[in-house]
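Follow-up to my earlier ticket, as requested here are the two runs.
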Amino acid sequence: MAASTTVGGGKKQVVLIASGDQRRSANVVCWPAQKALEDDARRAFARLGWEVVRGSTERQSDLEPHGFVNSQAYGREVFAKIDRDAPLVVAEAVWQYSQHVLAGLCNHRGPILLLANWSGQWPGLVGVLNLRGSLTKAGVKYSLLWGEDFAAASFEAKLREWCETGKITHDMSHVKQFSSVKLDADAKKEGERLAQELRERPAIMGVFDEGCMGMYNAIIPDRLLHTCNVFKERQSQSGLLAAMREVSDTEADAGRVWCEAKGMKFKTGRDEKTELTDRQIREQFKMYIAVVRLADRWGMDCVGIQYQLGLTDMCPASDLVEGLLNCTERPPVKAADGLRAGQVLFDGRPVTHFNEVDECAGLDGLITERVWRSMGLATDNTLHDLRWSDKDRSGTTSEEVWVLEISGAVPPSHLVGGYAGAVSERQPPMYFAQGGGGIKGVSKQGEVVWSRIFVEPDEGGVERLHMDIGLCEAITLPEAETQRRWDSTTPQWPIMHAVMRGVTRDQMMARHQSNHIQVVYAPDRATAIRGMQTKAAMAAGLGMKVCVCGVE
């Protein structure tokens, strides 16, 4: 046993901690939901005869009146007092920064349980999936458990399994190795051709500052990316700000006029702190134009903007920008100087963008763009958060319906009505102090291919790129049901009602290695299957370990 100040180590005793945001505003607002989850967890463990002791105080200080670990430095102090062999629970009802607890978890020797409530309110499921992906990448062993009712028999059985064995077994029967899946010969051939094409001409991934909100899982080590012949062009967000200053008010305003002519609405007011203002919108269009010009200047094949937290104190949100970039049809941007001055840049195609500079999504988006272009399809694709799921209460379907939702990056082409179905509302002040809007709307009905690239060490500890891929259907729900789901999550953000094919809710949670999920539309089921197979074959041709999830 360590010093007397050590937390944990007692018989039938678990240590509980909670990773949080770096922003005080978010931690204070979200703490009551976190406290409720922890109270439920205490009761659940007590029913099994176990005591929960907290690894840190429930009130850090008068300045920080919450119990979250809100920095790496504080996390280091918290873990210094925890018995490294004690059973450890990381409980999450909120979005969290994995870097706050990553060092401590990497050095912990006892069994680790990631525990989440089933709620869309403050994206705790999103937070725990990010932490899970980060631990997977780091090679740290852990178990994951989630539940709507911690008193339910099914939840208690899984919790008991962890208490007794330090592990939880989940149903993974929906996961199939790519090598065992029967492929269309033409799809396989085309995927392999596209992989070879990428191997012959390097692709450039533009990165405006690496590492967003502690998402360790979203950073692909250079040597792994190089195996796909993709190389990072690292640029600074300060350079982006400088480029925004070179864009005139006239150019920026023309972008807004273009969107409004297509039917897009901007819900504006005058209060800079709580409303979307004309000034914020102008700044966002300056960023849009600046990004396109920089992407052209540096030959970027895809681009990611960190924004959180690097630009949050400097300019309005990048979310409107990201959705426009990912759309084939968007406000034209002309070269400002050089031999091509006056020419439209990236004419007739998107500038593939990966939200929150998630490089796994960036590589996925790059691959998707090439596969869909080779098939003659619209290449507009995006990531979403795998936010939450619930049964449909309107009676439209008996299926479990996922809420896919993200602050930015969703192109208007994915929405019902396109630009005419899009509205830009101010981003939540709790997260976006400088304001700015996104592109809100409801995703249109249709066949969708989903996927996720992630990093996981093999049995020898060598990191490898993996891809999980499958099918889902974006469905239409009544307005009232859509609003209920928005009210349960973040009503300012675009939403997709997604039904996973051949994957149950719990199977999705048991396997998915990120808070993010990549989606792209196909015109029909047969084309979606062919696109999925071609994309999987291309990823395998680039050396990734590919698994097909579900698909009936």
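Run two:
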Amino acid sequence: MEATTTGQFGGRLSAVLYLLCGTLLVVAVPLVPAGPEANRAGMFGLGVVALGSGAVIWFLPWYRWRRASTLVLLLPTFVLIALFNLAAGNDGFRYAPFFFITFGWLGLVHPRGTSAAAVPLAAVAYLVPLAAGDAWTANAAWSIVYVLPAGVLLGEATAWVSDRLRRTQHSLREREVSFRKLFLENPQPMWVFDIEDYRFLEVNAAAIAHYGYSREEFLAMRVIDIRPPADVPAFLDEIATVDDLHYSPMAWRHVLKDGRIIEVAVTAHRLEFKGRAAMLSAIQDVTERNGLERELRHRAFHDALTELANRSLFANRLEHALARQARDGGAIGVIVLDLDGFKTVNDSLGHSVGDQLLFAVGERLLAAVRPGDTVARLGGDEFAILLEDEPTIDQVVEHAERIVNCLSLPFELAGKTLVVTASAGVTLNRPGDGPDELTRNADMAMYLAKHDGKACVRRYEPSLHHAALDRLELEADLRRALDRDELVVHYQPTVQLRDRAIKGFEALVRWQHPRRGLLGPMEFIPLAEETGMITDIGRWVLVTACRQARVWQQRYQRDLTIAVNVSARQLRDARLVDDVRDALAESELAPQHLTLEITESVLMDNSDAAIARLHELKALGIRLAIDDFGTGYSSLNYLRALPVDIVKIDKVFIDGVASDSESRGLIRAILSMADTLDLQAVAEGVESLDQALRLEQLGSSLVQGYYYAQPLSVAAVDALMTTGGIPGPDPATPTSARESTLLR
């Protein structure tokens, strides 16, 4: 039992008071004057008795008995006080302090009310000596009126303060026990280190298990010993500025016992530990998360095939170059190249050889430019080069001609010798040109080179308006397309990988142009985005898709879902929420059967407004999907904040799933992340059985792509649904051949 609940504290305190009072009497009696009726020998003897009693009381086993057991000392205490009164000649001023000491002891040791309960015994001890010593006078008797109440007041006040202190001490002790339990049993690595010498003072089991050091090894080390030497100065600088609670903005590196280096996030808190200024640190291993985010960031700004900069990174670097040029002077050149006849290589030798050719072209371009220049793949077989500090257009043309000649040299690929040529357009920035204008001007010049016979270089001239005129004509036709019912919606199935069951469709708009034929979305949607027509087109697609989905639900008695793409301009449109609500009401489609797809880049470019609009849409009961996931850059913490239900893994990851272990690792990480965040994952762009088998092995459940079905007209969907859905693999393909793809 603790000292506060046993008699140990009260007994020891009583012994100390006895010894002090006895010493006081033994020393003071011979020295201090006494009244004529005082018995000095008796007073001295009482001092000796008090000393002896104190010694006996000290050695009694109070720790075995409850606190209340010390109340037995009240009777002998008051007896000694009464005897002292007689020996002192009933001099109240001499023995009244002993009453106050007694009541103070009661307050320190015992609960409130004990002092009041002891009043009768104290009164007897006060009055009896008066009567026995023949000193009973009105004045002496009435002195009890202020002596005892004062003693009780002292005892009760002391008891109240003592009780408060006792409760506080108990609360602190409980908190300390809880803290130690939380610290020691926490699954997150934690430790305490001395702020002065950085030595570990305590570590928990999770830290021991994660870092590989034993507790003894930890306690013999300093916290800087688990850091690479290069990180120590920055760590010491940060420690010097840490407040009471601190979350480090840096991703620190720690060294495990086996030599591996991990990245960690650290939350630190200043505290006092065993009387020393210390720091409590909670460690989170973010190595895997940071690696995934770095890989996603790299993929967001680099072409997956060639590892060159992609269009986004090229535009970003071009923007920065223009800013530097405006500040420091100079000129900026842009070259856009397109391979001549690349489609023939793909069609004759296959996409694999085509991909190898694109990779080899990227390597050759990098070798042909200066270290500070930027080479990017804009898409397909189109490349761009940013040249800084080019004083004249003639020098840019010279660079482009040298690069075109370099590309005309033979390529040795797949046991074959390939010769390709390239057409290039060049431009030099003019006042007011932005990144888009520069790239567009070089692109227009490149198309002029194509028109002039290919394998040549052309420079941009302001007179190149044929492309602009064509664009104006296309824009005028697009403005009339809705009124003329030229737009149609095709539907691509979303398939359950396990049994090839159709779970829903994605609505994809097409334009049946009266002269140009059926145009895909890439041929007119960017123009619709730029001109603002996408809002009306998107509204029409939404209503049409909801109606058709409801028709199919009723016709085939299945809860088929429909997914509709939402553009950046639509997401910014304040009418979008009402448009969705109206489309659901008009079609009688249940909200949970409608999914709106928004690309990751749209969310990042307009994050605050986009998130607010997504929450409004989510309140309608619909589902939300992030399209092309992985092609933009969003952190996992950002993704957790979005009200989304589905992530659609971009085709760029799916392309390499059958043959590239890195792509498989990324897909596995994305699927794991989606499962952790309770999101549904859809793999889009599946084009082969190998890809489908590998995705099934990785745990993907929903897929979409040309391997299962291309975007279909309404009639084609009805025919597909009537004949039983998506067919299985070709029975002529041996099972062993299908399974062998999983062993690559």
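The only thing I checked on run two: The chain is about 50% helix and 20% strand. Let me know what else you need.
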